[in-house]
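REQUEST
  id: r-88c1
  op: predict_structure
  target: ParB family chromosome partitioning protein
  payload:
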Amino acid sequence: MSSKNKSFMADLVSVVEPAADANSRPSRLGVGVLSGRNNRLAELASGSVVNNPQELVDPDRCRIWIRHNRDYAALNETRCSDLIESILAQGKQEVPAIVRRVHNDPNYDYEVICGARRHWCVKWLRANNHPEIRYLVEIRDLTDEQAFRVSDLENRAREDLSDIERARDYLQALGLYYNGRQKDMAKRLNQSEAWLSRYLDLARLPTDILGSFADPFELKISHIGAIKPLLKEDDCRAAVLSEARRIREGRRMGEEDLPATVPDIIRAFGVVANKEAEARKKTALVKAPKKSGSDQIVLRNGSGVPLLRIEGKDRKSISLTLFPKDGGSKEEVETALRDLLDRYWED
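RESPONSE
  id: r-88c1
  status: 200
  body:
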């Protein structure tokens, strides 16, 4: 530290700590305390230590950040029971929530960046015979992108935040702060792109898939590796979505013998996807001999029954002949037609 800075620190310390009597000999403890204050002030001045104030506040004066990664509406006494018991045992909230000040809003003083669950618990306790408990917050000055990273870092190790909540937060942040550049986002989070991709894939699951699970919060990124391949092919995807809707509707109607756990539901998806894939394999393209100078292609099912005939007329068009009475099913013909669209129709 330069002599000028030392002088500044000495003057600052002199304001905090009255000067010792010149005739009195300072004790060893006094020197240690003064040295400790001097070192602390030096750290604050250099920026190596950040002094973030903490306060006990009324939770009703705190609003939840609109981009918070917690599904606040999904919180309830059951999901928060462990934290409620901990606060009651300690008589207070031990770990402060991270907030930032709110301006130009007469209804709120702070915005909760991290600590929505703590906020819910304190509000619940105050409404249930414990009005003396207040909300402990740590006040910081953060941009939205900084707030996102602080919230993610604090909640990443918490088991009470589900993977689906975190995944939705990442997908939203990708567009808001990183212009859709997954590589940049992974770098800012100090994680691999593969790790981030699994979360983004989870967040992008269709609503029909999520609705088939009794509790979507039980879905993990470890499950995405089994679900994603089932949605790759259009026909398989349609079959899986149909099965998901069947499970959801069946649960709503109180049907029994429905797959209940996450692994069971994923296995049910795999069964219908495999059936659809096998059905596609059974439809074979068979080249027929040339007739009247034109190429003909007859599509048959696995048993050799003709489904339809393709006749090439010119370079811009083809004509089809259906065989509705030769024994092929309507589903097999629909599959064959979809194959034709994929083959001949340019995107």
